[in-house]
Write a structure and sequence with these properties.
The complex is a heterotrimer of chains A (85), B (300) and C (401). Chain B has 300 residues and is an alpha/beta fold. Chain B contains 12 helices and 10 strands. Chain B is globular. Chain C folds into 2 domains: 6-251, 3-Layer(aba) Sandwich (Rossmann fold); 259-399, 3-Layer(aba) Sandwich (Rossmann fold), CATH 3.40.50.920. Chain C has 13 helices and 16 strands. A 7-stranded mixed β-sheet of chain C has the order 3-2-4-5-7-6-13, with helices on both faces. Chain C has a 6-stranded mixed β-sheet with strand order 10-12-11-14-15-16, with helices on both faces. Chains in contact: A-B, A-C, B-C.
Chain lengths: 85, 300, 401
């Protein structure tokens, strides 16, 4: 990577750094239990929960496995399981 | 659409930043920017946020962002605000997001200058109660009897003996039109306060309690839980002050004892030992004084 | 020929000359904090603001640290920016200046020279600005108020050059220049405007093109970032010379390039100096020449980047160079002496270089002082004694503890 004058860089470029490799526990959403309330998306510090057509997904490329989504889920629809490496 | 799916499509603070697992500060930043929208320039002093959001070539910021030094973010922000005014870029606002070390301590003079001049800057202090970027040293924001690496617990020490600096009051005494405290435990409330602050002109200050799993000593999934305990025991009062008067507080529905909050974190674990009872009493008094001062409980 | 009308000639205080130069450059943001002997500059600017003569954001900060920080922020946001300071104030700015040079934030600072504590004093020497020589800030030193006026106008163009983008400090001696009155030729506003177009940097804090400034870097890129500032400095030597020449064509006043060589042809002894003392040295050189002594002067106008190539051309035929340093690196010697010696070391047939510490804390330097320095240099030359320590001119050993 060539450096720029003064080190000014484009915004949004951290997407090239996949923090999913930091994870040792993986959140799994049980869609049968999920009420699509969106709290998991709301509480994720890593922007790694998203919804498409009211169905919630984890973005495992970036999810660090902190467990906040599982802990905050009001219906216990998210389970943290040991990451198989 | 690698990385551009879902949450990152619209976000102003995207994935790939290097905050610790369950970082309350990273979560706060996401929600601050949701509330401000894209027409802001963010200034961040040296600290955790600067470090985890700026490894060269990997920026999560989708708003213009600048880090200069540890102790000058308010002055850099004043300069940007002056430039925006000179250039008549009236739709763009300036927001500082800085930690408690830079805000309470090393950058305090610059903050006071910025407030006194009345510069059009929203200053947000993300408060995790210590210098976490350097490993958890004591700051002016460290709560009483918290153990830190520069004031650790020992045979002759119960941690920080002083009170946490009452910065919101000091800021309000500058004549700052909008001052608020918030917590990542109450994200909707946090966003509403940021939105409200954006409706004011001149200096504004929001102090956000951002629990820190590694610094406070709790498991990463508990960041919001700990935040809620802090608010509901009275040690972290949430309020708004407009033009010098207390205008709104977040009421405590079910008051918790401070021990509920303290026992959940290793920075306070020494207080739960046998010889900690009188110190616990002092902290309970601090919480009770907060509850009385801000009328956090509606008397029935 | 240059047209000279009465309206653009006026006798003004040196500080007002600076303020008028700054006003002519149409800065968008000025930050101001008082310190002697700089204060008159920001006061003149404040008066212009109060009278509605300037359309500028004028930020009255609470410290020099914030003065430098405000203009770092405004520069990043794309505004032409200016401040001034002295002495302790410049030292308080040090951290900001290193950082802004590294982030390539252009602005102009007037560094009004004054000695550093302790003991506290308001008398002048160059210790304050010399202490910033390694920061990545371009530094000019001036001899007269006319030169300080002209140099400020060039300074903005140099700072904002797309391949330079560095803070520029115009260093002027306190009191002697800031508080004395001199007849100044001012440049018409239209001429300044065509010489110095508005600041339109390629990168600025822009919501329509969000970028990040001031990232964290490590061993894979940090050396390259530092070297890129050195590249800007090297390029700067050529560009500064061009810009000085361009301004000289407009004004009809040529103060020289990176240096001014004064009567150096065939000179055996050459004095090397900078700042207002140069006027006194020129007088001494003329006197010595009139009695047949082959003496010359090299005045440094641009100290960083250090113009050793130009200095070499002017001194290579001389026998001895007497460097006059109004600063001292405790435990070593004067900065100019060190700079010159380090560049000459390893070259063949170089003149001997003696470092004279003169004028610290306002100690008077008159024509006689300069003659004594020349005599001392000749004496040491004749003895063939290289000086291992700097020679402190007019030091009074009687009062040392």
């Amino acid at each position: 990577m060539k450096i720029t004058i003064g080190g000014v860089v484009k915004g949004g470029t951290s997407l090239a750094y996949k923090t999913g490799s930091w994870r040792d526990q993986r959140p799994l959403i049980d869609l049968d239990l999920c009420k699509a309330c969106g709290i998991c998306e709301e509480v994720c510090p890593d922007n790694s929960v998203y919804a498409e057509d009211e169905i919630y997904y984890i973005d495992y490329e970036y999810c660090k496995g902190c467990g906040l989504c599982a802990h905050e889920c009001p219906v216990d629809a998210i389970e943290m399981v040991l990451e198989e490496k | 659409m690698n990385g551009e799916r879902g949450a990152n499509k619209e976000a102003l603070f995207v994935s790939g930043h290097r905050a610790c697992h369950g970082c309350g500060l990273a979560l706060a930043v996401r929600h601050i920017l949701k509330a401000t929208g894209p027409d802001v320039i963010v200034v961040t002093p040296t600290g955790c946020l600067e470090t985890f959001s700026s490894p060269y070539g990997y920026s999560p910021w989708r708003v213009p962002w600048i880090h200069h030094l540890f102790e000058n973010a308010p002055a850099v922000a004043s300069g940007i605000a002056a430039a925006l005014s000179a250039q008549k870029r009236n739709n763009v606002r300036v927001v500082v997001i800085g930690g408690d070390g830079s805000t309470f301590d090393i950058g305090f003079g610059a903050l006071s200058g910025m407030l006194e001049r009345g510069d059009d800057v929203l200053y947000i202090c993300t408060d995790n109660g210590a210098y976490m970027n350097t490993g958890g040293q004591r700051s002016g924001a460290t709560p009483t009897y918290s153990s830190t690496t520069t004031h650790p617990v020992g045979r002759k020490s119960m941690g920080k003996p002083q009170l946490k600096k009452d910065l919101p009051a000091i800021v309000a005494d500058h004549g700052t039109p909008y001052v608020a405290t918030a917590s990542v435990a109450y994200l909707k409330d946090l966003r509403k306060k940021v939105e409200k602050a954006m409706t004011y002109h001149g200096p504004r200050y929001i102090q956000i309690d951002t629990p820190c799993p590694s610094g406070w000593g709790f498991s990463s999934e508990l960041a919001l839980e700990i935040g809620r305990l802090g608010v509901n025991c009275g040690l972290v009062p949430l309020f708004e002050m407009e033009n010098g008067s207390l205008t709104r507080v977040r009421k405590i529905r079910k008051k918790l004892q401070v021990t509920e909050y303290l026992k959940a974190q290793s920075r306070f674990k020494h207080l739960l030992q046998e010889d900690g009872s009188e110190y616990l009493k002092e902290l309970q008094e601090i919480a009770d004084q907060n509850i009385a001062k801000y009328a956090l409980i509606t008397s029935s | 020929m240059l047209e000279q009308t009465m309206s653009n000639v006026k006798v003004v205080e040196g500080s007002e000359a600076v303020a008028l130069a700054v006003k002519g450059c149409r800065p968008e943001v000025i930050s101001a904090y008082p310190i002697s002997p700089q204060t008159h500059i920001v006061e003149w600017l404040a008066r212009m603001m109060a009278n509605g003569e300037m359309d500028t954001e004028y930020v009255r900060v609470e410290s020099e640290f914030s003065a430098a920080s405000v203009i770092s922020g405004s520069s990043a946001a794309g505004s032409r920016s200016y401040t001034a300071s002295s002495s302790q104030g410049l030292l308080l700015m040090t951290e900001v200046l290193y950082c802004s040079a590294g982030m390539r934030l252009p602005f102009v600072i007037t560094g009004v020279n004054r000695a550093l504590s302790a003991p506290i004093t308001i008398q002048i020497d160059h210790q304050d600005t010399i202490s910033l020589r390694d920061s990545g800030v371009i530094q000019f030193y001036v001899e007269s108020s006319q030169e300080v006026y002209d140099t400020h106008i060039a300074a903005f163009k140099i700072a904002e050059d797309p391949q330079i983008l560095l803070p520029v400090m115009v260093c002027m001696d306190g009191w002697i220049l800031t508080h004395s009155y001199e007849r100044i030729n001012f440049i018409e506003q239209e001429k300044i405007d065509s010489f110095l177009p508005p600041f339109r940097p390629a990168n600025f804090l822009d919501v329509n093109n969000p970028k990040a400034w001031g990232s964290y870097s490590e061993e894979n890129v940090l050396m390259e970032f530092k070297y890129s500032v050195q590249q800007a400095m090297q390029y700067g030597k050529k560009r500064i010379t061009e810009i000085f020449a361009e301004l000289a064509r407009i004004t009809g006043r040529d103060h020289g390039g990176l240096i001014e060589a004064y009567r150096t042809e065939d000179a055996e002894v050459i004095l090397l100096a900078m700042g207002s003392v140069v006027g006194t040295i020129k007088e001494a050189v003329d006197e010595l020449r009139s009695i047949g002594k082959k003496v010359g002067l090299v005045k440094i106008r641009c100290y960083r980047p250090f113009p050793h190539e130009d200095i070499w051309e002017a001194i290579k035929a001389a026998k001895v160079v007497a460097v006059m340093d109004a600063n001292f690196s405790m435990g070593s010697e004067g900065a100019l002496g060190m700079d010159l010696k380090s560049k000459l070391c390893g070259m063949r047939d170089t003149p001997l270089v003696f470092d004279f510490i003169a004028g610290l804390g306002g100690r008077e330097i008159n024509v006689k002082t300069v003659r004594r320095i020349v005599e001392k240099a000749e004496e040491m030359l004749n003895k063939g004694l290289p000086l291992s320590e700097s020679y402190w001119v007019d030091l009074n050993p009687e009062i040392l503890p």
